[in-house]
Amino acid sequence: MSSWNSGKVVYLGIFTGIAIALHILEGSFSPLLPVPGAKVGLANIVTLFIFFTVGPRDALLVLLLRILAGNLLGGTFLNVGFFLSASGGLSSFLALCVLSKKMHSVTVLSVISAVVHNLVQLLVAFSYIESRAIFLYLPLLVFSGVAFGFFCGYAGAFLINVWRQRFAGN
To answer: 7-41 burial, b if ≥16 CB within 10 A, otherwise e?
Structure first.
């Protein structure tokens, strides 16, 4: 799927819709950890899947559309939540792009990307509240990044393997 055709647009549209739905659905649940804003990041499974099956450029497009539409539909567009989502998503995507050239474990890449996501979000949150007390969340954010990054990476790797086994030759 290297060129833009109607099939690719539909394919990416479907996965963008899934990512947006997961983003909104996850935002409607109470947090799993006592950390404001800590989420599993289920929509990141879609980003990983597209990154490793279609390519980084298309994964970035799906990520950006998910961030924009998810925040528009969730009522957080251009507020703190939007900037936290955008900064975390883009920084973790950049980490994924850089590190995927040297390592190929989807799960390990997901863990690293999740931790980067949380660290960058913490820095952005600090720029808003200007209180060093926010760094008390650092251990919980690293722990949640490792745990949820592992979960999403494992799920993403599973889906990528299933896709490759069934559709890679077609």
So the answer is: eeeebbeebbebbbbbbbebbeeeeebeeebbbbb
CA atoms within 13 A on the CB side of 103: 13
Contact 149, 111 (CB under 8 A): yes
pLDDT in tens, 66-112: 999 988 887 778 888 889 989 999 999 999 999 999 999 999 999 99
Give the Cβ contact number of residue 90 at 10 Å: 16
Q: What is the pTM (predicted TM-score) of this model?
A: 0.87
**Reduced to 3 DSSP states, what percent helix, strand and coil does the chain have, rounded to the nearest 5?**
80, 0, 20
pLDDT digits (tens, 9 = 90+) for 108-121: 999 999 999 999 99
